């Protein structure tokens, strides 16, 4: 506000004292603003106890969350390393296996099979022994599997190593986002969860791609063994040092370790003040939520019936299934299937050049994801999800047209256009969906079902990925470019379905989201706003009587 500018007019109701502490303070001495918020209670607590993001506790919390992001790096690395190794002649010569066919298909798919099996057991480990324990155990499996792959002499041993890594990854990718949303400060939970998936996946993917690019010209087996040796590094760091970070306060409360849980919240959310308004609110909400649900401590680890036990949980799972299915059936696989032949058409023929194009595509997508993560708390989760489906569908239209006009034989000009659309498609999906793929499921699930819900999500994702892996090549062979049309239609079918079911989680604590899912109309309830007047240091007053 410029000097001499009069303060904004505030309603008489808003001029009432904000709290007992403010009763004797003249309104003119307060920093006042009128805003619309989703959570009056959280806004009030943050206004009374505004966080200092430069404080030692907040900086330490950021470092802890960045450290946990290593789990996402392991997922991104293994998700990309095999596709790059499949382009290396040395790998195929050693195992006498072709670049296509059922054998290499098994090598690719066995990782997904490991993920499906691992997801079943992950929730039990994470709920019983803690989020940190899940990260450590998952990392141990990844180390074992990576060593087996790096040292294997037979294809059977290599496939076994792929399965072991696939089995361990879900423990890390379930425990990590669960930990982050439960540990992050409420006002920047969206940014933390968004950056986890973006930084984790793309740093891992870029490391894998560029490592393979650098080792591709090494003569002999070390060209493809070295990337698996590198894969051991983040897993070893995680398994050795995860014990030095604090356990999730929500898991601690669930295990009746209230004093330890409160001390963690006090240190990292209250800047060492046990009477912090934010800490008091979180402790009260967490304990009330756990007492109301109480399934985490009573239920057996293998009992997944809790996920569909009541209407609220069924609604949550319906959202997760929609998001997971769309993530797997966006048409990304069918785009990448033709990419090598398209690159050859425009003169990009060598393995190193094609690896470079894949790496550049990953860089562009990474940049889109980073920017998108900073919009998660600004734009909200629901708008990003819906706009992501809509815009990616629009980009898919020219991809579909190019595929149809070419009849499977793309000329040079069309090839360049196709490549441009692939890059644009990756940027759109990374900006809108990548930041939310780990964050949103972890947010909408309550504490008592968070690990099991994400495990079920990974299980469904694995099944969908497995179907997609085998169905796409068959469809391309039998119906050609019409495969693109199927994925294009699916974009807009998902858009309609998601419009009616996805809720907004922005601006609320995890426990407050219970109110949304218990409401008869969750979507409408999630979009409701309250108009409040905020007094810095003293809290808020609801402006609408």
Automatic annotation (TrEMBL):
Keyword Membrane: yes
Principal location class: membrane
Source organism superkingdom: Eukaryota
Subcellular location: Membrane
Membrane topology: Multi-pass membrane protein
InterPro entries: MFS_dom, MFS_sugar_transport-like, MFS_Sugar_Transporters, MFS_trans_sf, Sugar/inositol_transpt, Sugar_transporter_CS
Pfam families assigned to the protein according to its UniProt record, in alphabetical order: Sugar_tr
Domain Major facilitator superfamily (MFS) profile, first and last residues per copy: 64-506
UniProt keyword Nucleotidyltransferase present: no
GO molecular function: carbohydrate:proton symporter activity
Regions crossing the membrane: 59-77, 104-126, 133-151, 163-181, 193-216, 228-245, 317-339, 359-377, 384-407, 413-433, 454-471, 483-501
Keywords: Membrane, Transmembrane, Transmembrane helix, Transport
Listed GO CC annotations: membrane
Family: Belongs to the major facilitator superfamily. Sugar transporter (TC 2.A.1.1) family.
Name used for this protein in its record: Major facilitator superfamily (MFS) profile domain-containing protein
Protein's organism: Colletotrichum gloeosporioides (strain Cg-14) (Anthracnose fungus)
């Amino acid at each position: 506000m410029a000097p001499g500018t009069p303060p904004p007019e505030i309603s008489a109701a808003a001029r009432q004292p904000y709290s007992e502490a403010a009763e004797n303070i003249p309104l003119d001495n307060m920093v006042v603003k009128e805003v619309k918020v989703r959570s009056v209670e959280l806004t009030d607590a943050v206004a009374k106890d505004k966080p200092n993001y430069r404080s030692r506790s907040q900086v330490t919390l950021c470092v802890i969350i960045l450290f946990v992001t290593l789990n996402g790096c392991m997922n991104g690395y293994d998700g990309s390393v095999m596709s790059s190794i499949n382009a290396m002649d040395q790998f195929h010569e050693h195992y006498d296996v072709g670049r296509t066919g059922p054998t290499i298909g098994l090598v690719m798919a066995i990782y997904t099979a490991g993920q499906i099996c691992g997801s079943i057991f992950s929730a039990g480990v994470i709920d019983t022994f803690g989020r940190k324990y899940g990260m450590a155990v998952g990392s141990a499996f990844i180390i074992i599997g990576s060593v087996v792959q790096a040292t294997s002499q037979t294809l059977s041993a290599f496939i076994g190593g792929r399965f072991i890594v696939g089995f361990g990854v879900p423990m890390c990718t379930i425990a990590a986002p669960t930990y982050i949303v439960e540990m992050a400060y409420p006002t920047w939970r969206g940014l933390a969860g968004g950056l986890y998936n973006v930084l984790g996946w793309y740093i891992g993917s870029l490391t894998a791609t560029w490592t393979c690019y650098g080792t591709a010209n090494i003569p002999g087996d070390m060209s493809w063994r070295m990337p698996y040796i590198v894969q051991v590094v983040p897993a070893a760091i995680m398994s050795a040092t995860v014990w030095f970070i604090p356990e999730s306060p929500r898991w601690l409360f669930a295990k009746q370790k209230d004093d330890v849980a409160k001390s963690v919240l006090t240190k990292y959310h209250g800047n060492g003040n046990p009477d912090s308004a934010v800490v008091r609110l979180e402790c009260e909400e967490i304990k009330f939520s756990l007492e109301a649900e109480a399934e985490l401590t009573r239920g057996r680890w293998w009992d997944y019936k809790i996920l569909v036990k009541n209407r609220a949980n069924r609604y949550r799972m319906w959202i997760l299934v929609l998001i997971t299915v769309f993530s797997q059936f966006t048409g990304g696989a069918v785009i990448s299937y033709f990419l090598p032949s398209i690159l050859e058409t425009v003169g990009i023929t060598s393995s190193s050049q094609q690896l470079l194009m894949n790496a550049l595509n990953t860089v562009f997508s990474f940049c889109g994801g980073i920017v998108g993560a900073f919009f998660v708390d600004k734009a909200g989760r629901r708008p990003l999800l819906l706009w992501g489906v809509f815009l990616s569908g629009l980009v898919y239209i020219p991809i579909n047209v190019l595929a149809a006009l070419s009849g499977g034989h793309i000329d040079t000009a069309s090839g360049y256009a196709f490549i441009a659309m692939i890059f644009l498609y990756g940027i759109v999906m990374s900006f809108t969906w990548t930041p939310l793929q780990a964050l949103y499921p972890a947010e909408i699930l309550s504490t008592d079902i968070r690990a099991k819900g994400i495990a079920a999500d990974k299980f469904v994702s694995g099944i969908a990925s497995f179907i997609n892996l085998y169905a796409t090549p068959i469809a391309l062979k039998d119906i050609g470019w019409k495969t693109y049309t199927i994925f294009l239609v699916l974009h807009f079918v998902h858009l309609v379905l998601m419009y009616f079911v996805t809720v907004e989680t922005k601006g609320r604590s995890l426990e407050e989201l219970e109110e949304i899912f218990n409401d008869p109309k969750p979507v409408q309830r999630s979009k409701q706003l309250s108009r409040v007047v905020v007094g810095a240091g003293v809290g808020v007053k609801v402006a609408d009587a």
